[in-house]
Amino acid sequence: MKALQPLRDYLQQTRLLASISSTLYFDQNTVMPAASAPWRGEQLALLAAQLHQRQTSDEYSDLLEAAESEASESEASGPDRNLELLRLELDRRRCLDPDLVGALTRAQSHGNAIWQEARRTDTFVTFAPALKQLINLRLEQASQLRPAEPPGRSAWEILAQPFEPDISKGRLEQLFAPLKRELPPLLDQVMASKQPAAAAPELLPPLQDQLCSELLSSWGYDPQRCHASSSAHPFSCTLGPNDFRITTRVVEGQPFSCFLAAAHEWGHSLYEQGLPRDRPQCFPWPLGDATSMGVHESQSLFWECRVARSQAFAALWYPRFCQTLTQDPWGCSDEFWRAFNPMRPGYIRVEADELSYCLHIVLRYELELALLEGGLPVEELPQQWNQRFEQLLGLIPTSDREGCLQDIHWAEGMFGYFPSYALGHLISAQLSEAMVAELGPLHERIAAGEEQLLRQWLGRYVWPLGRSVNAEQLVHQVSGAALSADPFLTYLRDKVERLQAPQPAAVS
Question: N or C terminus of the chain with fewer C-beta within 10 Å?
Fold first, then answer.
Protein backbone atom coordinates (compact mmCIF):
# COMPACT_ATOMS: atom_id res chain seq x y z
CA MET A 1 0.00 0.00 0.00
CA LYS A 2 1.60 3.25 -1.21
CA ALA A 3 -0.17 5.44 1.33
CA LEU A 4 1.31 3.56 4.28
CA GLN A 5 4.93 4.64 3.76
CA PRO A 6 4.45 8.41 4.18
CA LEU A 7 2.21 7.72 7.19
CA ARG A 8 4.90 5.49 8.65
CA ASP A 9 7.55 8.18 8.11
CA TYR A 10 5.35 10.69 9.91
CA LEU A 11 4.82 8.32 12.85
CA GLN A 12 8.56 7.68 13.06
CA GLN A 13 9.24 11.40 13.52
CA THR A 14 6.52 11.60 16.15
CA ARG A 15 8.10 8.71 18.05
CA LEU A 16 11.46 10.47 17.99
CA LEU A 17 9.93 13.57 19.53
CA ALA A 18 8.13 11.52 22.19
CA SER A 19 11.38 9.73 23.07
CA ILE A 20 13.04 13.10 23.79
CA SER A 21 10.27 13.82 26.29
CA SER A 22 10.77 10.38 27.88
CA THR A 23 14.49 11.04 28.19
CA LEU A 24 13.85 14.29 30.02
CA TYR A 25 11.39 12.48 32.31
CA PHE A 26 14.00 9.83 33.16
CA ASP A 27 16.55 12.54 33.93
CA GLN A 28 14.01 14.40 36.09
CA ASN A 29 13.50 11.35 38.28
CA THR A 30 17.11 10.24 38.58
CA VAL A 31 19.82 12.91 38.48
CA MET A 32 18.14 16.28 37.84
CA PRO A 33 18.77 18.91 40.57
CA ALA A 34 15.56 19.79 42.40
CA ALA A 35 15.95 23.52 41.69
CA SER A 36 15.67 22.95 37.94
CA ALA A 37 12.12 21.54 38.20
CA PRO A 38 10.36 24.71 36.91
CA TRP A 39 12.59 24.85 33.82
CA ARG A 40 12.09 21.14 33.22
CA GLY A 41 8.34 21.73 33.39
CA GLU A 42 8.63 24.34 30.65
CA GLN A 43 10.76 22.00 28.53
CA LEU A 44 8.25 19.18 28.85
CA ALA A 45 5.32 21.52 28.18
CA LEU A 46 6.96 22.74 24.95
CA LEU A 47 7.52 19.17 23.80
CA ALA A 48 3.97 18.18 24.76
CA ALA A 49 2.59 21.07 22.69
CA GLN A 50 4.71 20.05 19.70
CA LEU A 51 3.66 16.42 20.07
CA HIS A 52 0.01 17.38 20.31
CA GLN A 53 0.32 19.52 17.21
CA ARG A 54 1.90 16.67 15.25
CA GLN A 55 -0.68 14.18 16.50
CA THR A 56 -3.64 16.39 15.57
CA SER A 57 -2.41 18.24 12.47
CA ASP A 58 -4.23 18.35 9.14
CA GLU A 59 -1.16 16.81 7.53
CA TYR A 60 -1.39 13.79 9.82
CA SER A 61 -5.15 13.53 9.36
CA ASP A 62 -4.74 13.59 5.58
CA LEU A 63 -2.06 10.88 5.69
CA LEU A 64 -4.25 8.66 7.86
CA GLU A 65 -7.31 9.26 5.69
CA ALA A 66 -5.36 8.34 2.57
CA ALA A 67 -4.19 5.09 4.17
CA GLU A 68 -7.73 4.28 5.33
CA SER A 69 -9.13 4.93 1.86
CA GLU A 70 -6.49 2.74 0.23
CA ALA A 71 -7.11 -0.05 2.77
CA SER A 72 -10.87 0.02 2.16
CA GLU A 73 -10.28 -0.43 -1.57
CA SER A 74 -7.89 -3.36 -1.15
CA GLU A 75 -8.92 -6.99 -1.14
CA ALA A 76 -7.50 -7.57 2.32
CA SER A 77 -10.03 -9.18 4.66
CA GLY A 78 -11.07 -7.32 7.75
CA PRO A 79 -10.12 -3.87 9.02
CA ASP A 80 -6.53 -2.78 9.57
CA ARG A 81 -5.95 -2.81 13.33
CA ASN A 82 -3.14 -0.23 13.12
CA LEU A 83 -5.34 2.21 11.26
CA GLU A 84 -8.24 1.58 13.66
CA LEU A 85 -6.04 2.45 16.67
CA LEU A 86 -4.56 5.50 14.96
CA ARG A 87 -8.03 6.80 14.11
CA LEU A 88 -9.21 6.28 17.68
CA GLU A 89 -6.26 8.21 19.10
CA LEU A 90 -6.54 10.99 16.52
CA ASP A 91 -10.22 11.51 17.28
CA ARG A 92 -9.45 11.67 20.99
CA ARG A 93 -6.55 14.08 20.67
CA ARG A 94 -8.50 16.41 18.38
CA CYS A 95 -10.99 16.84 21.18
CA LEU A 96 -8.33 18.38 23.42
CA ASP A 97 -7.54 22.07 23.66
CA PRO A 98 -3.77 22.57 23.09
CA ASP A 99 -3.71 24.99 26.02
CA LEU A 100 -5.03 22.21 28.26
CA VAL A 101 -2.31 19.84 27.02
CA GLY A 102 0.39 22.35 27.95
CA ALA A 103 -1.22 23.15 31.30
CA LEU A 104 -1.43 19.46 32.16
CA THR A 105 2.21 18.87 31.36
CA ARG A 106 3.33 21.83 33.48
CA ALA A 107 1.05 20.69 36.32
CA GLN A 108 2.47 17.15 36.13
CA SER A 109 6.05 18.38 36.33
CA HIS A 110 5.15 20.77 39.17
CA GLY A 111 3.17 18.08 40.97
CA ASN A 112 6.11 15.68 40.74
CA ALA A 113 8.51 18.23 42.26
CA ILE A 114 6.11 19.32 45.02
CA TRP A 115 5.27 15.71 45.87
CA GLN A 116 8.92 14.80 46.30
CA GLU A 117 9.41 17.66 48.77
CA ALA A 118 6.09 17.01 50.58
CA ARG A 119 6.95 13.33 50.89
CA ARG A 120 10.41 14.17 52.24
CA THR A 121 8.99 16.57 54.84
CA ASP A 122 5.77 14.62 55.50
CA THR A 123 3.57 17.64 54.81
CA PHE A 124 0.48 16.80 52.77
CA VAL A 125 -0.78 20.37 53.10
CA THR A 126 2.01 21.58 50.79
CA PHE A 127 1.01 19.04 48.14
CA ALA A 128 -2.76 19.56 48.34
CA PRO A 129 -2.95 22.62 46.00
CA ALA A 130 -0.98 20.79 43.29
CA LEU A 131 -3.25 17.76 43.63
CA LYS A 132 -6.37 19.95 43.36
CA GLN A 133 -5.01 21.50 40.19
CA LEU A 134 -4.27 18.10 38.66
CA ILE A 135 -7.74 16.78 39.51
CA ASN A 136 -9.41 19.83 37.96
CA LEU A 137 -7.29 19.58 34.81
CA ARG A 138 -7.93 15.85 34.43
CA LEU A 139 -11.66 16.35 34.89
CA GLU A 140 -11.55 19.01 32.18
CA GLN A 141 -9.63 16.57 29.99
CA ALA A 142 -12.28 13.89 30.53
CA SER A 143 -14.98 16.42 29.63
CA GLN A 144 -13.22 17.38 26.41
CA LEU A 145 -12.63 13.72 25.47
CA ARG A 146 -16.25 12.69 26.05
CA PRO A 147 -17.43 13.23 22.42
CA ALA A 148 -14.86 10.66 21.22
CA GLU A 149 -15.83 8.06 23.84
CA PRO A 150 -18.69 5.53 23.83
CA PRO A 151 -21.83 6.85 25.56
CA GLY A 152 -22.03 6.29 29.28
CA ARG A 153 -18.33 6.25 30.19
CA SER A 154 -17.66 8.09 33.42
CA ALA A 155 -14.85 10.61 33.92
CA TRP A 156 -12.71 8.01 35.67
CA GLU A 157 -13.32 5.42 32.93
CA ILE A 158 -12.33 7.93 30.25
CA LEU A 159 -9.08 8.76 32.04
CA ALA A 160 -8.31 5.05 32.54
CA GLN A 161 -8.51 4.18 28.81
CA PRO A 162 -4.86 4.97 27.96
CA PHE A 163 -3.77 2.55 30.68
CA GLU A 164 -6.45 -0.14 30.36
CA PRO A 165 -8.35 -0.02 27.05
CA ASP A 166 -12.03 -0.94 27.29
CA ILE A 167 -12.03 -1.17 31.10
CA SER A 168 -15.15 -0.27 33.04
CA LYS A 169 -15.98 0.26 36.70
CA GLY A 170 -18.54 -2.55 36.47
CA ARG A 171 -15.95 -5.05 35.28
CA LEU A 172 -13.50 -3.97 37.97
CA GLU A 173 -16.16 -4.47 40.63
CA GLN A 174 -16.69 -8.04 39.34
CA LEU A 175 -12.98 -8.80 39.54
CA PHE A 176 -12.30 -6.96 42.80
CA ALA A 177 -15.30 -8.29 44.77
CA PRO A 178 -13.71 -11.76 45.40
CA LEU A 179 -10.50 -10.03 46.50
CA LYS A 180 -12.30 -7.79 49.00
CA ARG A 181 -14.25 -10.80 50.26
CA GLU A 182 -11.49 -13.41 50.56
CA LEU A 183 -8.23 -11.56 51.19
CA PRO A 184 -9.06 -10.10 54.65
CA PRO A 185 -9.85 -13.55 56.15
CA LEU A 186 -6.59 -14.88 54.70
CA LEU A 187 -4.78 -11.95 56.27
CA ASP A 188 -6.47 -12.66 59.60
CA GLN A 189 -5.33 -16.28 59.33
CA VAL A 190 -1.77 -15.19 58.76
CA MET A 191 -1.84 -12.63 61.54
CA ALA A 192 -3.17 -15.24 63.97
CA SER A 193 -0.18 -17.46 63.23
CA LYS A 194 2.36 -17.74 66.03
CA GLN A 195 5.17 -18.29 63.55
CA PRO A 196 7.99 -15.83 64.29
CA ALA A 197 9.14 -13.42 61.62
CA ALA A 198 12.12 -14.53 59.56
CA ALA A 199 15.41 -12.68 59.94
CA ALA A 200 15.86 -9.44 58.00
CA PRO A 201 19.55 -8.58 58.47
CA GLU A 202 21.10 -5.26 57.63
CA LEU A 203 22.25 -5.26 54.01
CA LEU A 204 24.32 -2.21 53.14
CA PRO A 205 23.44 -0.34 49.91
CA PRO A 206 26.59 -1.42 48.01
CA LEU A 207 25.80 -5.06 48.78
CA GLN A 208 22.19 -4.60 47.63
CA ASP A 209 23.44 -3.04 44.41
CA GLN A 210 25.81 -5.98 43.91
CA LEU A 211 23.04 -8.55 44.32
CA CYS A 212 20.76 -6.60 41.97
CA SER A 213 23.49 -6.58 39.34
CA GLU A 214 23.93 -10.33 39.68
CA LEU A 215 20.19 -10.87 39.33
CA LEU A 216 19.87 -8.70 36.24
CA SER A 217 22.87 -10.34 34.61
CA SER A 218 21.42 -13.80 35.19
CA TRP A 219 18.13 -12.68 33.63
CA GLY A 220 19.56 -11.36 30.38
CA TYR A 221 20.58 -7.78 31.18
CA ASP A 222 22.54 -6.36 28.23
CA PRO A 223 24.55 -3.24 29.17
CA GLN A 224 24.71 -2.30 25.49
CA ARG A 225 20.92 -1.79 25.46
CA CYS A 226 19.98 -1.35 29.12
CA HIS A 227 20.76 0.96 32.03
CA ALA A 228 19.91 0.74 35.73
CA SER A 229 19.76 3.76 38.04
CA SER A 230 18.08 4.82 41.29
CA SER A 231 15.06 7.07 41.94
CA ALA A 232 12.60 8.00 44.68
CA HIS A 233 10.08 5.60 43.14
CA PRO A 234 11.21 2.54 41.12
CA PHE A 235 10.11 2.58 37.49
CA SER A 236 10.92 1.28 34.02
CA CYS A 237 10.86 3.22 30.76
CA THR A 238 11.84 2.75 27.14
CA LEU A 239 13.65 5.66 25.48
CA GLY A 240 14.17 4.04 22.09
CA PRO A 241 14.21 0.72 20.22
CA ASN A 242 17.49 -0.19 21.92
CA ASP A 243 17.39 1.96 25.04
CA PHE A 244 15.73 0.34 28.07
CA ARG A 245 16.00 1.96 31.50
CA ILE A 246 15.01 0.79 34.98
CA THR A 247 15.40 2.32 38.42
CA THR A 248 15.39 0.91 41.93
CA ARG A 249 15.83 2.32 45.42
CA VAL A 250 17.35 1.21 48.71
CA VAL A 251 14.85 1.36 51.59
CA GLU A 252 16.21 1.52 55.13
CA GLY A 253 15.12 -1.49 57.15
CA GLN A 254 13.98 -3.36 54.03
CA PRO A 255 17.01 -5.41 52.94
CA PHE A 256 15.20 -7.19 50.10
CA SER A 257 13.30 -4.22 48.72
CA CYS A 258 15.89 -3.17 46.17
CA PHE A 259 16.40 -6.75 44.96
CA LEU A 260 12.69 -7.35 44.49
CA ALA A 261 12.26 -3.95 42.84
CA ALA A 262 14.98 -4.92 40.37
CA ALA A 263 13.12 -8.15 39.59
CA HIS A 264 9.86 -6.22 39.18
CA GLU A 265 11.18 -3.46 36.96
CA TRP A 266 13.24 -5.87 34.88
CA GLY A 267 10.01 -7.78 34.23
CA HIS A 268 8.60 -4.57 32.76
CA SER A 269 11.72 -4.13 30.68
CA LEU A 270 11.70 -7.72 29.39
CA TYR A 271 8.15 -7.13 28.16
CA GLU A 272 9.20 -3.92 26.41
CA GLN A 273 12.15 -5.70 24.83
CA GLY A 274 9.89 -8.53 23.67
CA LEU A 275 7.22 -6.42 21.99
CA PRO A 276 7.06 -6.99 18.21
CA ARG A 277 8.86 -3.78 17.24
CA ASP A 278 11.19 -5.54 14.79
CA ARG A 279 8.27 -6.25 12.47
CA PRO A 280 7.48 -3.71 9.72
CA GLN A 281 3.77 -3.73 10.62
CA CYS A 282 4.49 -3.09 14.32
CA PHE A 283 6.98 -0.22 14.62
CA PRO A 284 6.37 2.69 14.79
CA TRP A 285 2.78 1.51 14.48
CA PRO A 286 0.46 0.97 17.49
CA LEU A 287 0.66 -2.84 17.20
CA GLY A 288 4.18 -2.63 18.57
CA ASP A 289 2.99 -1.07 21.83
CA ALA A 290 2.06 -2.78 25.09
CA THR A 291 -1.36 -4.40 25.25
CA SER A 292 -2.27 -2.54 28.44
CA MET A 293 -0.71 -1.56 31.73
CA GLY A 294 -2.46 -4.52 33.36
CA VAL A 295 -0.60 -6.85 31.01
CA HIS A 296 2.55 -4.80 31.61
CA GLU A 297 2.17 -5.27 35.36
CA SER A 298 1.47 -8.98 34.91
CA GLN A 299 4.95 -9.35 33.45
CA SER A 300 6.71 -7.46 36.23
CA LEU A 301 4.71 -9.30 38.89
CA PHE A 302 5.43 -12.63 37.24
CA TRP A 303 9.18 -12.13 37.62
CA GLU A 304 8.96 -10.56 41.07
CA CYS A 305 6.41 -12.92 42.64
CA ARG A 306 6.26 -16.15 40.66
CA VAL A 307 10.02 -16.31 40.23
CA ALA A 308 11.99 -14.14 42.70
CA ARG A 309 9.68 -14.83 45.67
CA SER A 310 9.42 -18.57 44.91
CA GLN A 311 10.75 -21.31 47.15
CA ALA A 312 12.85 -22.74 44.33
CA PHE A 313 14.46 -19.37 43.63
CA ALA A 314 15.22 -18.91 47.33
CA ALA A 315 17.05 -22.24 47.38
CA LEU A 316 19.22 -21.07 44.47
CA TRP A 317 20.02 -17.64 45.87
CA TYR A 318 20.35 -18.52 49.55
CA PRO A 319 24.10 -19.30 49.25
CA ARG A 320 24.71 -16.05 47.31
CA PHE A 321 23.07 -13.91 49.98
CA CYS A 322 24.98 -15.70 52.74
CA GLN A 323 28.23 -15.22 50.85
CA THR A 324 27.51 -11.53 50.29
CA LEU A 325 26.65 -11.03 53.96
CA THR A 326 29.57 -13.24 55.09
CA GLN A 327 27.10 -14.84 57.51
CA ASP A 328 23.93 -16.97 57.55
CA PRO A 329 21.13 -15.28 59.51
CA TRP A 330 18.50 -17.81 58.36
CA GLY A 331 19.97 -21.28 58.91
CA CYS A 332 18.30 -22.81 55.89
CA SER A 333 16.90 -21.84 52.50
CA ASP A 334 13.28 -22.23 53.63
CA GLU A 335 13.76 -19.58 56.30
CA PHE A 336 15.40 -17.40 53.68
CA TRP A 337 12.32 -17.93 51.48
CA ARG A 338 10.07 -16.93 54.36
CA ALA A 339 12.09 -13.72 54.71
CA PHE A 340 11.22 -12.88 51.07
CA ASN A 341 7.55 -13.51 51.81
CA PRO A 342 6.74 -11.90 55.18
CA MET A 343 2.94 -12.00 54.59
CA ARG A 344 2.28 -9.27 57.06
CA PRO A 345 0.20 -6.21 56.15
CA GLY A 346 2.28 -3.04 55.91
CA TYR A 347 1.76 0.60 55.07
CA ILE A 348 3.75 0.86 51.82
CA ARG A 349 2.30 -0.54 48.58
CA VAL A 350 5.60 -1.24 46.83
CA GLU A 351 6.82 -3.12 49.91
CA ALA A 352 3.56 -5.05 50.36
CA ASP A 353 3.33 -8.83 50.33
CA GLU A 354 1.29 -10.62 47.71
CA LEU A 355 -1.56 -11.20 50.14
CA SER A 356 -2.25 -7.59 51.01
CA TYR A 357 -1.08 -5.93 47.81
CA CYS A 358 -4.42 -5.96 46.00
CA LEU A 359 -6.14 -4.42 49.03
CA HIS A 360 -3.73 -1.49 48.66
CA ILE A 361 -5.00 -1.15 45.10
CA VAL A 362 -8.66 -1.38 46.05
CA LEU A 363 -8.07 1.45 48.52
CA ARG A 364 -6.51 3.70 45.87
CA TYR A 365 -9.12 2.84 43.26
CA GLU A 366 -11.98 3.71 45.60
CA LEU A 367 -10.30 6.96 46.67
CA GLU A 368 -9.72 7.92 43.03
CA LEU A 369 -13.40 7.48 42.36
CA ALA A 370 -14.21 9.55 45.43
CA LEU A 371 -11.85 12.38 44.37
CA LEU A 372 -12.93 12.46 40.72
CA GLU A 373 -16.59 11.49 40.85
CA GLY A 374 -17.69 11.42 44.50
CA GLY A 375 -16.94 14.96 45.61
CA LEU A 376 -14.27 14.04 48.18
CA PRO A 377 -12.38 17.25 49.09
CA VAL A 378 -8.64 16.95 48.68
CA GLU A 379 -8.16 18.22 52.23
CA GLU A 380 -9.95 15.13 53.56
CA LEU A 381 -7.80 12.67 51.62
CA PRO A 382 -5.39 11.83 54.50
CA GLN A 383 -8.28 11.17 56.89
CA GLN A 384 -10.16 9.05 54.36
CA TRP A 385 -7.00 7.18 53.46
CA ASN A 386 -6.29 6.26 57.08
CA GLN A 387 -9.90 5.31 57.80
CA ARG A 388 -10.24 3.04 54.78
CA PHE A 389 -6.75 1.61 55.33
CA GLU A 390 -7.75 0.49 58.79
CA GLN A 391 -10.93 -1.10 57.43
CA LEU A 392 -9.09 -3.06 54.73
CA LEU A 393 -5.75 -3.85 56.35
CA GLY A 394 -6.24 -3.30 60.06
CA LEU A 395 -3.54 -0.63 60.31
CA ILE A 396 -3.56 3.14 60.75
CA PRO A 397 -0.68 5.03 59.07
CA THR A 398 1.28 7.17 61.49
CA SER A 399 2.26 9.72 58.84
CA ASP A 400 1.18 10.89 55.40
CA ARG A 401 4.55 9.73 54.08
CA GLU A 402 3.47 6.15 54.76
CA GLY A 403 -0.09 7.03 53.82
CA CYS A 404 -1.46 9.13 50.98
CA LEU A 405 1.91 10.64 49.99
CA GLN A 406 3.69 7.37 49.27
CA ASP A 407 2.90 7.01 45.53
CA ILE A 408 3.95 9.25 42.67
CA HIS A 409 0.92 8.50 40.45
CA TRP A 410 -1.48 11.21 41.67
CA ALA A 411 1.38 13.71 41.71
CA GLU A 412 1.57 13.21 37.95
CA GLY A 413 -2.18 13.11 37.42
CA MET A 414 -2.18 9.40 36.57
CA PHE A 415 -5.76 8.75 37.66
CA GLY A 416 -6.99 5.38 36.41
CA TYR A 417 -3.62 3.63 36.59
CA PHE A 418 -3.78 1.89 39.97
CA PRO A 419 -6.25 -0.91 39.05
CA SER A 420 -3.70 -2.12 36.50
CA TYR A 421 -1.55 -3.40 39.36
CA ALA A 422 -4.32 -5.64 40.70
CA LEU A 423 -5.26 -6.71 37.18
CA GLY A 424 -1.58 -7.56 36.73
CA HIS A 425 -1.75 -10.02 39.64
CA LEU A 426 -4.86 -11.68 38.21
CA ILE A 427 -3.45 -11.84 34.68
CA SER A 428 -0.09 -13.15 35.90
CA ALA A 429 -1.80 -15.96 37.82
CA GLN A 430 -3.92 -17.03 34.87
CA LEU A 431 -1.02 -16.89 32.40
CA SER A 432 1.13 -18.85 34.86
CA GLU A 433 -1.43 -21.66 34.86
CA ALA A 434 -1.23 -21.76 31.06
CA MET A 435 2.58 -21.79 31.25
CA VAL A 436 2.55 -24.69 33.73
CA ALA A 437 0.24 -26.67 31.44
CA GLU A 438 2.93 -26.58 28.75
CA LEU A 439 6.23 -26.42 30.63
CA GLY A 440 5.36 -28.32 33.79
CA PRO A 441 5.71 -26.98 37.36
CA LEU A 442 7.45 -23.62 37.47
CA HIS A 443 9.46 -24.56 40.55
CA GLU A 444 11.17 -27.31 38.56
CA ARG A 445 12.19 -24.88 35.82
CA ILE A 446 13.38 -22.30 38.36
CA ALA A 447 15.26 -24.89 40.44
CA ALA A 448 17.10 -25.96 37.30
CA GLY A 449 18.05 -22.35 36.52
CA GLU A 450 15.95 -22.45 33.35
CA GLU A 451 14.43 -18.98 33.50
CA GLN A 452 15.21 -18.67 29.78
CA LEU A 453 12.43 -21.22 29.11
CA LEU A 454 9.98 -18.95 30.92
CA ARG A 455 11.16 -15.97 28.85
CA GLN A 456 10.82 -18.01 25.67
CA TRP A 457 7.25 -19.03 26.54
CA LEU A 458 6.25 -15.43 27.23
CA GLY A 459 8.05 -14.37 24.06
CA ARG A 460 6.03 -16.90 22.08
CA TYR A 461 2.53 -16.38 23.48
CA VAL A 462 2.28 -13.00 25.26
CA TRP A 463 4.80 -10.39 24.15
CA PRO A 464 4.21 -10.60 20.36
CA LEU A 465 0.50 -9.76 20.70
CA GLY A 466 1.15 -6.09 21.43
CA ARG A 467 -1.98 -4.03 20.83
CA SER A 468 -3.58 -6.50 18.47
CA VAL A 469 -5.87 -7.34 21.43
CA ASN A 470 -6.92 -5.80 24.73
CA ALA A 471 -5.99 -7.34 28.08
CA GLU A 472 -9.02 -9.57 28.48
CA GLN A 473 -8.74 -10.80 24.90
CA LEU A 474 -5.09 -11.64 25.48
CA VAL A 475 -5.88 -13.64 28.60
CA HIS A 476 -8.64 -15.58 26.83
CA GLN A 477 -6.43 -16.23 23.80
CA VAL A 478 -3.50 -17.53 25.85
CA SER A 479 -5.34 -19.33 28.66
CA GLY A 480 -8.58 -20.33 26.93
CA ALA A 481 -10.73 -18.78 29.68
CA ALA A 482 -12.10 -15.39 30.68
CA LEU A 483 -10.09 -13.40 33.21
CA SER A 484 -10.97 -14.36 36.77
CA ALA A 485 -9.71 -13.78 40.30
CA ASP A 486 -9.85 -17.55 41.01
CA PRO A 487 -6.33 -18.54 39.79
CA PHE A 488 -4.77 -15.76 41.87
CA LEU A 489 -6.71 -16.67 45.00
CA THR A 490 -5.86 -20.36 44.54
CA TYR A 491 -2.18 -19.45 44.24
CA LEU A 492 -2.32 -17.34 47.41
CA ARG A 493 -4.09 -20.01 49.47
CA ASP A 494 -1.47 -22.55 48.48
CA LYS A 495 1.39 -20.18 49.27
CA VAL A 496 -0.03 -19.25 52.68
CA GLU A 497 -0.42 -22.94 53.50
CA ARG A 498 3.19 -23.67 52.56
CA LEU A 499 4.53 -20.64 54.41
CA GLN A 500 2.69 -21.63 57.57
CA ALA A 501 3.77 -25.26 57.42
CA PRO A 502 6.19 -26.25 60.21
CA GLN A 503 9.75 -25.59 59.15
CA PRO A 504 12.54 -28.11 59.78
CA ALA A 505 14.91 -27.14 62.54
CA ALA A 506 18.13 -25.57 61.37
CA VAL A 507 21.19 -27.77 61.55
CA SER A 508 24.22 -26.19 63.15
Answer: C
